[in-house]
């Protein structure tokens, strides 16, 4: 189901490629004077180039980029040693977690609801010709296509058993078609963190940011509490989303997408926090 959604979005970008390639990377237009159809074509062009940038960027990686990637892989492997203990801890919190919170976590990270919400956001920006809202939607869509395809291939490629299979945190059956062996990474986490991070980047107020990130953290936490994923499924999915969103956001700013000039935001420092009976991804801003 998730693969089909991303496939449709990606095909929209691919079929627009001839139009996009006929222009500069992100051509400039007077958006206040353009028709709704012209703005739609502009946004498709921006989405196409953003996705293409994401998948071709590794070709230009330097030593420090490979070092960071290696650190992510090693860090995930080390963190996986705590997966089963973290699972036991999360399960013990289930009865104390309000059902409405757990339900919200599932629905917010569900692909259908996710795309309906973003379609509504983009539709508002398109018909009101609001450049900032449209740019935010392009950022969300481009990042979602990128992270969605990566996590879909990873799920199938790794074939990691979900906790419900009772095979342990380190059971893998690569390229399995069984849904119960598609645990890594967490799709709900990828989508919820992608959207929340993309939206939070549009605000300067730290309290607003904190509120948005809190909402975005509900799906990952609910997936742990419901026993649907291991800790590393959620952690890797969150980091992947943050990295992709930041990369595409920088690309759009560099090209002055939607005629919005670059304004250097206050940096957010992301760290994995460990402590007695707790582990988390902490952003300091």
UniProtKB/TrEMBL annotation:
InterPro entries in UniProt: PAP2/HPO (IPR000326), PAP2/HPO_sf (IPR036938)
Keywords: Signal
Residue span, Phosphatidic acid phosphatase type 2/haloperoxidase domain: 138-249
Gene3D superfamilies associated with the record: Phosphatidic acid phosphatase type 2/haloperoxidase
Residues making up the signal peptide according to the UniProt record: 1-22
Segments forming a coiled coil: none
Keyword Calcium found: no
Superkingdom field: Bacteria
Keyword tRNA-binding carried by entry: no
The protein's name: Phosphatase PAP2 family protein
Organism (species): Seonamhaeicola marinus
């Amino acid at each position: 189901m998730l693969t089909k959604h991303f496939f449709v979005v990606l095909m929209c970008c691919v079929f627009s490629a001839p139009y996009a390639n006929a222009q500069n990377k992100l051509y400039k237009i007077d958006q206040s004077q353009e028709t709704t159809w012209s703005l739609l074509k502009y946004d498709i062009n921006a989405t196409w180039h953003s996705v293409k940038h994401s998948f071709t960027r590794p070709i230009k990686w330097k030593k420090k980029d490979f070092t960071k990637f290696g650190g992510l892989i090693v860090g995930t492997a080390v963190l996986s040693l705590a997966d089963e203990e973290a699972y036991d801890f999360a399960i013990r919190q289930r009865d104390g977690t309000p059902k409405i919170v757990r339900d919200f976590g599932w629905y917010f990270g569900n692909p259908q609801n996710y795309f309906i919400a973003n379609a509504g956001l983009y539709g508002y920006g398109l018909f009101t010709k609001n450049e900032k809202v449209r740019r935010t939607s392009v950022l969300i869509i481009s990042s979602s296509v990128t992270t969605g395809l990566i996590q879909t291939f990873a799920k199938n490629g790794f074939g990691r058993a979900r906790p419900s299979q009772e095979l342990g945190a380190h059971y893998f059956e690569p390229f399995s078609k069984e849904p119960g062996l598609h645990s890594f990474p967490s799709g709900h986490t990828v989508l919820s963190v992608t959207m929340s991070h993309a939206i939070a980047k549009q605000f300067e107020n730290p309290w607003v940011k904190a509120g948005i990130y809190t909402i975005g953290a509900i799906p990952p936490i609910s997936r742990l509490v419901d026993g649907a994923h291991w800790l590393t499924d959620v952690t890797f999915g969150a980091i992947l989303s943050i990295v992709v969103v930041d990369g595409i956001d920088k690309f759009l700013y560099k090209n002055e997408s939607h005629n919005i000039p670059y304004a250097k935001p206050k940096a957010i420092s992301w760290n994995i926090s460990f402590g007695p009976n707790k582990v988390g991804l902490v952003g300091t801003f």
